[in-house]
Amino acid sequence: MDAGRLRMLRELADHGTVAAVAQVLSMTPSAVSQQLKILQREAGVTLIEPDGRRVRLTDAGQMLVGHADAVLAALDRARAEMDAYRSTPRGTVSVSFFPSGAAMLLAPLIIRAAERGVHVLGRDIDVPASRAPAQLADFDVVVVHRDERDASPWGPRFESTELLREPLDVVLPPDHHLAGRDQVRLTELADEPWIGVEGGLMVDDVLNSIAILSGVRPRIAQRINDFRVVEELVHAGAGVALMPRYVRLARELARLPITDTSMARRVEAITRTGASTRPAVAAVLEELRTIAAGISAATVGHAPGRSARPARD
Predict the structure, then answer these.
(1) What is d(CA 222, CA 97) in angstroms, rounded to the nearest whole number?
(2) To pair with 228 at 20 to 30 A between CA atoms, which of 22, 48, 88, 181?
(3) Which residues contact 263 (CB under 8 A, 6 or more apart)?
(4) Prediction pTM value
(5) What InterPro entries has UniProt attached to this entry (predicted)?
(6) For 44-65, how does the pLDDT look when each residue is reduced to its tens digit (9 = 90+)?
């Protein structure tokens, strides 16, 4: 079986439509359909069947996708062995970040990777962490954040590199009656309006999990994904909000740890199984770990308090 056709089948499993596969591979839908039909003849079984106006993989097709991953991973390893003959990693590595992760990690990653001969092509995309497998159809590395209590496995087709654990604090208007405190309990914020985010994103997952664990269900007054906009609303007195501790604030806000429940996000870099054997990808993962370790070390013992520093969103 042709490796290119196997890759098309895998892309179909990830994207769900022939048109989407065609767009990813810069082909016409008719050309993709023709190649998939050839693969089906080579396999000798039905791999794809109609599903309304779309198509879906049969059980045999799903099984072949698993074999395709193994074949393509083996090809990646073969390419990596060829790359190993070079003295340094080379090439371009595409990396997707959630927005505040891009603000925190992307700039130093570009600089440090370039010093090793690797060009990082970064994007900031605000989608739930669960979309990482689909994003890996377009990126070599996908950096995600999720509630630290979320232990959902990524599955055998994907590998996770943990980068850091980042506590979440509450930010309050500077004239809030609790603003002078060093810390606060969640129960003291039970009657406050909260600035949340779109459902499915990390902060919303955290708010839902603490509601289940503590019995305190925050009253969401607004849903804003951009932390910079959240700052403005909190500063204006429209509500309180959760903010990752390493996100730099532009506004002078009170930033307090919550003591009666643990809240943090876990930042991970997700790759396809076998992708990290490519020297360029391995170099990017190594630099991400180093940068994240430096951020964690620099903020050990940092007291949230008031903040009026340059914005990181």
Answers:
(1) 24
(2) 181
(3) 167, 168, 206, 210, 242
(4) 0.73
(5) ArsR-like_HTH (IPR011991), LysR_HTH_N (IPR000847), LysR_subst-bd (IPR005119), WH-like_DNA-bd_sf (IPR036388), WH_DNA-bd_sf (IPR036390)
(6) 888 888 877 778 888 888 888 8
